[in-house]
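Lab channel / #folding
Pinned by the channel admin:
"Please post every new chain as: sequence first, then the structure tokens as a reply. Keep commentary short and put observations after the output so the thread stays searchable."

First post following the new format, from NK:
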Amino acid sequence: MPMTDLLAACDIPKAMAAFPAAEPFNHKKFFELCGLKGKSQDDMKKVFHMLDKDQSGFIEKDELALILKGFTPEGRDLSDKETTALLAAGDKDGDGKIGVDEFVKLVSEC
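Reply from TO:
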């Protein structure tokens, strides 16, 4: 399923344009700009499963680094610093990965 089945096609490029280069990434602003924050928990879970490329039930650090590419193929990779900060914001149980409930909470708290 393409991300545009859940999010407005015009919102994704707008969100990407706000973070064109490494280091200014702000997940709260990104989730708001792309329209994910205002979606239902079910839609957030669908997005989670699209971002969970290996279908492990978790978004691990390597998948997290590619999160913007999950929204559009033109997205950039997050830097190590950005990835670590995003993981720290979402990993509430300290297991080094983000589960679906943690992802929903991460997006909802923005």
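NK: Residues 47 and 63 are 13 Å apart (CA to CA).
TO: also worth noting, The chain has a mean pLDDT of 95.
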